[in-house]
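Deliverable D2.4 — example input (C-alpha cells):
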C-alpha cells in the first residue's frame, strides 16, 4: 500500500486539535506538521467529524475557528509534501466533548433517551442518519479533496483512505420506532412469546406488550455475575441479547454505508477504526475506563464482532495498546491483535494501528519501544499502519510532548519500515491458529468473575506458539467453519465460557476433520468442543499441583479438569488423575489440557509452594523446564527457525521479520541472509525491543 505523493508505504498519524495551543496557534500547527514529516509519516488524519460548522462551511458561510484551523492545516500539509485524510464520523457525533467542541454534531436522526429527551447518539439504522454521514463525506472531498491521501492498494491505483467511523457503538432508541424494531428482533430470535417468556421469566401476552424495562439492560442496575452466565438467568439473557442485537445492527450499518460510500465514489477506501483502545485485550483496571457497572471501552460491552464486519469494509482495522487488562506492558497483546486484523482481511492488503502518543499505563514506551511496535506491524504482514496521536490531551495524544529518545525511535522505525516493506512478498507462512472465542468476546465483559483470565488464555496460547517460532493466526469460528483449517497444522482452542450460546456445528465438523486428517488440536479445560466433537469425557478437578516429567508445576487458576481414556502426559500431584491427555484421532491428535493453559503460561506471580507439599520442587508453568503443551507441539511440528522465548519470528516467502521483545540482545546468525536492522550493532546482534528483516538466501 503506497502513498502516492511520497511513493512510500502508507504511514498515517492522527493530529487532533481540540486543545490549546493547537486550537489557536498557527505556529504550533505548522511546527507540528513539520515534526510529523521529520518522524517519517506521510499522511495526517484530520479530526473532521460531522459538526454543524462544517455543514455551514459547505453552504458558503465563514469558517469557524475550528474549521479555519483545519483549512490552515490542509494548506500546511500540502506545503510540507504530506497528504491528508479524514476522520469523518465518530461513535456518537462527539457529544463526549460538549465543553471542548463549540459546534453541535449533525446526527441526521438522533436516538431517544429513556426520558424522551434526545439521546445524543446516531440512530445507526436510520436512512436519514446514514444520508447525513454520506453527505458529510461527499462535501469533505468536494471542498478539501485537493491533496487528499491517495494510495495504491490490492493492485488498484488511487484509492482514498477514509476513516468512515471511529469507535462504533450502537445504542438503543426509546422512541416508538426503536422499541418496535427491538421487539421485532426478539420475536425473530425466539420464534414464540412462550419461548421468550421462559427465557426471561415473564408472562407477556405478545412481543408488542413487553416494555424496555423488561428486555433492556439498565446500566444502573444489577450487573450480571458469573453465576448469571452459568445459570442463564433472565438478567443474563437480557444483557447478552442486547449485545447480540447491537452486533447485528452494527454489521448491517457497515454493509449499508459501504454501499452508499462506494456509490458516492468507488475510489473511497473505507477503513474505519473499530476500536481505539484495543479489541478484546483492552484496559479495564484504570478507574477512568470503568463506567460502573461496565464501560464504553471494554469491547465486550459494545456489541461488536469485527470479523463479521470485515466483509463490509475495505480495510478491517483498529488501534491497539501494548498492555494487559491491568495496564502492565505486553508487546504480544498488540502482536496478537495484529494477527486478528490479518485474519479479518484475507487475500487483501490491510493496515494495523496502535497508540503511540500515550502517557498513561506506567509509561509503557519506556518498556516497549516505537521501533518494536513498528517491527510488529511489518511482522504482521501489514502494508502500512495508522497511529494516534500527535495532540489531544484527553485521549493521550501527546507525541508533541514526549522526549527525544521516543521521537528518535519513531523516526528510526518509520525509516526502516519504508526500506523493508517493499522487500516482503506474499502473506505469512501458515502453521498454527488460535480460535477467537467469539461468543465470550461479544457478551462477557471484564467485570464477570474469571473473565480477565479467560481472555489471557487466548493471548497465552498465541505467545507460547510464537515462542516456539511458529507463525500464528487468530481465526473466528465462522472462518474455521468455512474449511480453511487445512492450511494449518495446529489449532488451539482457548477458554470460551459462552461457546454454547451460539453453537457452530460446521466449525465442530471442520475441527474433527482437521484432526482426522493429521492436525494437532489443543483444548483448554472447560471447553465443550472436546465432548461435542470428539466424545472425550472429562470432569472437574480441584485445584492441585501438576507433575510432568518429574517436575512439579504450581497452577494459578481455578478451572481444572481430568480425563478418561487417552495417554496421560501429566497428572495431578495428589489424586494421580490425568491432567494433560493426548487422544489419537485418525492421523492426528487432540491434546486435552486440564487447565486454562494460556493463562498459566502468562502467569506473572504465584504464591509460595503450598504448605502440604513441603519442600518439593514446584514452579509456575512460566518458569518450568518442561512444558507439556510446548513439548507436544515441538514434537509434532519442529521449528523452522531458532527459538527463544520472547523472540517473535514471522516467515514470508522470501524473508523473515524478527522482533526481539526481550531486554537482552539476541544472536540471529542462525538465520542466514542479508539483514536490515532497525538498530545496527554488528552483523548478527538484534538489540532489545527492536526488529530486523532477513532476506532468505537462495
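Example output (designed residues):
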Amino acid at each position: 500500500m503506497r502513498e502516492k505523493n511520497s511513493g512510500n508505504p502508507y504511514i498515517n498519524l492522527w493530529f487532533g486539535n481540540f486543545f490549546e495551543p493547537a486550537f489557536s496557534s498557527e505556529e504550533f500547527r505548522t511546527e507540528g506538521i513539520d515534526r510529523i514529516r521529520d518522524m517519517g509519516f506521510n499522511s495526517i488524519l484530520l479530526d473532521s467529524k460531522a459538526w454543524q460548522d462544517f455543514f455551514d462551511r459547505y453552504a458558503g458561510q465563514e469558517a469557524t475557528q475550528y474549521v479555519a484551523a483545519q483549512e490552515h492545516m490542509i494548506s500546511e500539509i500540502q506545503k510540507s509534501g504530506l497528504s491528508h485524510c479524514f476522520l469523518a464520523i465518530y461513535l456518537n457525533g462527539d457529544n463526549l466533548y460538549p465543553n471542548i467542541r463549540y459546534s453541535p454534531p449533525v446526527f441526521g436522526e438522533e436516538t431517544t433517551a429513556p426520558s424522551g429527551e434526545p439521546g445524543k447518539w446516531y440512530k445507526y439504522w436510520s436512512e436519514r442518519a446514514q444520508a447525513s454521514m454520506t453527505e458529510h463525506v461527499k462535501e469533505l472531498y468536494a471542498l478539501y479533496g485537493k491533496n487528499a491521501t491517495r494510495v495504491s492498494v490490492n493492485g488498484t491505483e488511487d484509492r482514498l483512505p477514509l476513516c468512515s467511523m471511529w469507535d462504533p457503538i450502537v445504542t438503543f432508541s426509546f422512541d416508538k420506532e426503536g422499541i418496535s424494531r427491538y421487539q421485532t428482533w426478539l420475536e425473530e430470535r425466539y420464534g414464540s412469546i412462550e419461548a421468550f417468556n421462559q427465557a426471561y421469566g415473564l408472562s407477556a401476552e405478545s412481543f408488542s406488550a413487553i416494555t424496555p424495562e423488561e428486555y433492556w439492560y439498565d446500566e444502573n442496575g444489577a450487573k450480571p455475575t458469573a453465576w448469571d452466565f452459568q445459570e442463564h438467568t433472565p438478567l443474563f439473557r437480557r444483557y447478552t441479547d442486547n449485545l447480540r442485537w447491537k452486533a447485528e445492527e452494527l454489521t448491517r450499518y457497515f454493509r449499508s454505508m459501504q454501499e452508499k460510500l462506494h456509490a458516492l465514489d468507488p475510489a473511497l477506501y473505507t477503513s474505519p477504526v473499530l476500536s481505539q483502545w484495543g479489541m478484546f485485550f483492552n484496559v479495564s483496571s484504570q478507574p477512568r475506563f470503568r463506567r460502573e457497572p461496565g464501560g464504553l471501552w471494554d469491547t465486550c460491552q459494545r456489541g461488536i464482532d469485527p470479523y463479521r464486519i470485515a466483509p463490509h469494509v475495505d480495510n478491517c482495522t483498529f488501534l491497539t495498546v501494548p498492555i494487559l487488562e491491568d495496564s502492565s506492558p505486553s508487546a504480544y497483546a498488540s502482536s496478537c491483535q495484529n494477527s486478528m486484523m490479518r485474519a479479518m482481511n484475507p487475500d487483501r492488503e490491510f493496515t494495523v494501528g496502535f497508540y503511540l502518543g500515550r502517557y498513561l499505563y506506567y509509561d509503557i514506551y519506556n518498556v516497549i519501544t516505537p521501533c518494536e511496535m513498528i517491527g510488529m506491524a511489518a511482522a504482521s504482514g501489514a502494508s502500512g499502519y495508522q497511529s494516534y496521536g500527535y495532540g489531544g490531551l484527553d485521549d493521550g495524544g501527546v507525541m508533541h510532548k514526549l522526549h527525544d529518545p521516543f521521537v528518535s525511535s519513531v523516526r528510526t522505525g518509520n525509516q526502516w519500515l519504508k526500506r523493508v516493506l517493499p522487500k516482503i512478498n506474499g502473506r505469512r507462512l501458515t502453521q498454527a491458529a488460535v480460535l477467537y472465542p467469539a461468543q465470550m468476546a461479544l457478551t462477557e465483559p471484564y467485570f464477570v468473575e474469571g473473565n480477565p483470565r479467560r481472555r489471557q488464555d487466548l493471548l497465552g496460547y498465541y505467545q507460547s506458539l510464537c515462542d516456539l517460532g511458529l507463525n500464528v493466526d487468530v481465526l473466528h469460528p465462522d472462518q474455521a467453519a468455512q474449511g480453511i483449517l487445512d492450511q494449518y497444522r495446529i489449532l488451539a482452542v482457548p477458554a470460551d465460557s459462552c461457546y454454547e450460546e451460539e453453537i457452530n456445528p460446521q466449525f465442530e465438523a471442520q475441527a474433527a476433520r482437521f484432526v482426522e486428517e493429521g492436525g494437532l488440536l489443543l483444548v483448554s479445560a472447560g471447553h465443550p468442543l472436546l465432548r461435542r466433537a470428539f466424545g472425550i469425557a472429562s470432569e472437574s478437578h480441584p485445584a492441585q499441583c501438576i507433575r510432568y516429567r518429574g517436575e512439579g508445576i504450581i497452577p494459578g487458576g481455578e478451572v481444572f479438569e481430568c480425563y478418561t481414556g487417552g495417554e496421560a502426559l501429566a497428572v495431578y500431584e495428589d489424586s494421580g488423575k490425568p491432567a494433560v491427555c493426548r487422544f489419537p484421532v485418525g492421523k492426528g491428535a487432540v491434546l486435552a489440557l486440564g487447565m486454562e493453559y494460556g493463562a498459566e503460561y502468562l502467569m506473572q506471580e504465584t504464591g509460595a509452594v503450598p504448605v502440604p507439599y513441603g519442600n518439593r520442587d514446584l514452579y509456575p508453568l512460566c518458569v518450568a523446564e518442561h512444558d507439556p503443551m510446548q513439548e507436544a507441539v515441538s514434537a509434532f511440528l519442529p521449528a523452522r527457525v531458532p527459538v527463544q522465548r520472547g523472540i517473535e519470528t514471522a516467515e514470508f516467502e522470501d524473508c523473515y521479520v524478527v522482533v526481539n521483545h526481550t531486554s537482552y540482545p539476541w544472536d540471529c546468525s542462525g538465520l542466514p541472509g542479508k539483514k536490515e536492522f532497525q538498530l545496527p550493532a554488528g552483523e548478527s546482534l538484534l538489540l532489545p525491543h527492536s526488529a530486523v528483516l532477513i532476506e532468505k538466501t537462495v
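The two ends are 27 Å apart (CA to CA).
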